[in-house]
Amino acid sequence: MQTLFIRLVRPAIAVWLMALCLQAQSIPHTEAETLAGKKIVLPDAFAGHPAILVIGFSRSGGDSAGRWSKQLRQDLAENKNVPIFSVAELQDAPKLARGLIRHGMRGGVPQNAHDSFVLLYQDEDVWKKLAEFSDTNDAYVLLVDSAATIRWRGHGKSPDEQTVSALKKEIAELTTGK
Predict the structure, then answer these.
(1) 78/89 Cα distance (integer angstroms)
(2) Beta carbons within 8 Å of 124's beta carbon, 6+ residues apart
(3) pLDDT in tens, 65-98
(4) Which residues of 43-82 are buried (b: 16+ CB within 10 A; e: fewer)?
(5) Which helix (H) or strand (E) holds 146?
């Protein structure tokens, strides 16, 4: 009887545990505001399309996110089907300072990018977990599919050729199905 248990139940438990580990993570529904002043909800803002989110969790992380966003917009300019959203998580910023921070960001971000620059004031812990946060100085990059499921993650102070190449490969697989 014990041998039958080991032969039948153990593999089932192993498969169940693997499924838990591989469970897809999706972007949570989070109310946000763009630098243009529009109220949006993520991931509804890009529903039905893949997207790239470049997230900064601090001032220095925001600087890193700026480098990532600029480089990715250049490297992916030909791919109009995958919008790039810059995201500033400002939950920990004092409420009195948020207006000044927003004003400073408006001056530092080109006008044509204000609609795709997102300000978050909540759910920081959730977003850090999704991004696999480890360094306040890094930017965190998430590629999500049309169902808002995370398909690729990256992070760093600035993008390197190998990381951008891996992201491009994942985008190609996502958008062409190959």
Answers:
(1) 28
(2) 57, 89, 91, 92
(3) 999 999 999 999 888 889 999 999 999 999 999 9
(4) bebbeeebbbbbbbbbeebbbbbbebbbbbbeebeeeeeb
(5) none
How far apart are alpha carbons 15 and 152 in whole angstroms? 23
Task: From residue 73, give the alpha-carbon distance in Å to each of 10, 12, 62, 83.
Answer: 48, 45, 16, 9
**β partners of residue 85:** 53
For the stretch 5-48, pLDDT in tens is 555 555 555 444 344 334 579 999 999 999 999 999 999 999 88
Instruction: Write the single-letter amino acid at 139.
Output: A
Number of H helices, E strands in the chain: 5, 7
Rounded CA-CA distance 20/32 in Å is 30
For the chain, the first-to-last Cα distance in angstroms comes to: 47
